[in-house]
Amino acid sequence: MKEKINILLLGSGGRECAMAWKISRSPRLDTLYVAPGNAAPYGTRVALDPMDFPAVKNFVEEKNIDMIVVGPENPLVGGIADFFADSEVKVIGPKADGARLEGSKEFAKEFMVRHGIPTARFMSVTEETLEQGMHFLESLQPPYVLKADGLAAGKGVIILDSLADAKDTLSDMLSGMFGSASATVVIEEFLSGIECSVFVVTDGEDYKLLPVAKDYKRVGEGDTGPNTGGMGSVSPVAFADEVFMEKVVQRIVEPTLKGLKAEGIHYKGFIFLGLINVEGNPMVIEYNVRMGDPETEVVMPRLKSDLVDLLEGVADETLSIKQVEEDPRAAVSVMLTSAGYPGDYQKGKMMTLPGQGDVLRFHAGTRLDEQGNVLTAGGRVMALTAYGTDIAAAAAKALAEAERVDFDGKYFRRDISRDLQAM
Ligand code: AMP
Ligand code: GLY
Predict the structure, then answer these.
(1) Atom 12, ligand 1: residue with shortest CA distance
(2) pTM of this prediction?
């Protein structure tokens, strides 16, 4: 084993920044590169498109990269792990076969049915089966859940209150609302409950669970307004107690890993279970084949163990001898966003970053100008993560920091974690 390794991390969001921060702290690390990255101070930025696999390969050879950590789903669904399968470099993330768990909602639902994993009742519909789809909608109680089968940048799920709207939207989706991603639509029964995100890391044989988190998707306080990429996150999640997690493991984690093996899918990487707690019983809302954003911004701070050591366990199939130790402190992350997001918003605003205390600043949509100033460059700009003895204390610290870090048009939610504070 090499004493220290070179890592290339692909991606440019808050998730990747939190991973870069964590990787940077590893005694196993020689050099970290982040492509394309943002204005964050962790790792060396590289102007590479994560979807340009030949360019990634050239860089890997040039810099003697030992491991590629893939942040977002697109390169995985696009087959980056397959592309590098015969090379020396270790890719953290599934091959395209495993990435279908996220790349196709229809595949994911059918996989769950095949392996007896609890999920909402559903029907998968195309233009040809539109009529059956309409009948299925009629058989359901409102609200109605419609999901584009393919990747739609987190926007492919629509929830409608009236049957008429659901029918119209189903037709619209099938006729190209999300391009080819919605040529197939999954209609689902609506599940009522509180959600949480469980992260599994697996080497194809063994697995470990990372700290459980919850994210806040809606733009407005009290979970109102349109869905966003995520306005904040918290860990731990009180209702994900020992009894609940035992059910998650027995009913979801282990059947999922067994199912992958049974289908000949050798899965190495992260599995993100989007779960909903329906009267004490966990059900799967979705699978993702990567870490969550902004969940990673609280999961990495709460992971005490060395992430690089853990990822080497994934690559070398030695995860069974690795440890996952959690920081006992709570963590809350508040996302600063640009006014107007998730609709239209302005970029290029100069950021004011007063002297940093102990609150972590995970850059999301930021960039550096020629003078080294940090400018806003996206809807989600920066995740501020604070620790606390409990989640209320962590939230108070993150919010205080959200007042200090500034830019024109700054917006954030003040109620991140509040629903869990009462539990
Ligand atoms: P997704 O993009 O799959 O994460 O879905 C976006 C959000 O829609 C989820 O986080 C849930 O809040 C909601 N959602 C998806 N499927 C269902 C369902 N069957 N019942 C209730 N809510 C759902
Ligand atoms: N926070 C949800 C996601 O990353 O998809």
Answers:
(1) 195
(2) 0.95
pLDDT of 422 over the 90 cut:
no
* C-alpha span between 250 and 269 (Å, rounded): 20
**DSSP letters for 356-419:** --SSEEEESSEEE-TTS-EEE-SSEEEEEEEEESSHHHHHHHHHHHHHHSB-TTEE--S-TTHH
Q: Which of helix, strand or coil describes residue 134?
A: helix
- Which residue's CA is minimally distant from atom 4 of ligand 1? 286
Q: Given the CA of residue 291, which atom of ligand 2 is nearest to it?
A: 4
Integer-rounded Cα Rg, in Å, for the chain is: 21
Work out whether strand 5-11 and strand 67-70 pair parallel, antiparallel, or are unpaired: parallel
Nearest ligand by distance to the CA of 194: 1
252: which DSSP letter?
I
Q: What rounded mean pLDDT belongs to the chain?
A: 96
Residue nearest to atom 9 of ligand 1 (CA): 285
Query: In 76-88, which positions are buried (b, 16+ CB within 10 angstroms) versus exposed (e)?
Result: bbbebbbbbeeee
- How many C-beta atoms surround the C-beta of residue 358 within 10 A? 8
